[in-house]
Amino acid sequence: QVQLVESGGELVLPGGSLRLSCAASGLTFRQYGAGWFRQAPGKAREFLAAIKATSGNVYYGDSVKGRFTMSKDNAKNTAYLQLNSLKPEDTAVYYCAAGRVISSSLTYESSYAYWGQGTQVTVSS
After folding, report:
1. Tell me: the pLDDT tens digits for 96-115?
2. Strand-pair partners of 66
3. H helices of the chain, where?
4. What is the pLDDT of residues 12-53, one digit of tens each?
5. What is the model's pLDDT at position 108?
6. Who contacts 75 (Cβ-Cβ below 8 Å, separation ≥6)?
């Protein structure tokens, strides 16, 4: 049984930073790509970042390039998303996903077979 468990979301001031974690069980990030998405109220789910299983190459969505950094620790089977210079418009539920993704499809939700329950990030003064 596959489980992805996100953690690290909380209320933070504008300009602040957070690190989100995604702990996986039932699959290994050595074989599955990992992705981060977010969904704000009333908006579609948005691709943020993805890391490929074997190469470890990371890809970012345009809205977070330069502010967010994705990484993974294969030994801990955990993926991370470092969020810097946070803005109120970053407020959303952040989701971790895993799948056997290829470069041409990693921005699509349908490429990911497994999803976490989400963690709330709120940026407000």
Report:
1. 999 998 878 889 999 999 99
2. none
3. none
4. 999 999 999 999 999 999 999 999 999 999 999 999 999 999
5. 93
6. none
Across 19-58, b (16+ Cβ under 10 Å) vs e yields: ebbbebeebebeebbbbbbbeeeeeeebbbbbbbbeeeee
Edge-to-edge strands of the sheet including 68-73? 3-7, 18-25, 78-83, 68-73
Nearest to 102 by CA among 110, 92, 90, 114: 110
Q: Measured between alpha carbons, how far is 34 from 30 in angstroms, rounded to an integer?
A: 10
Longest distance between any two alpha carbons in the chain, whole Å: 41
Tell me how far apart the alpha carbons of residues 83 and 70 are, in angstroms, rounded to a whole number.
9
Bridge partners (DSSP) listed for residue 23: 5, 78
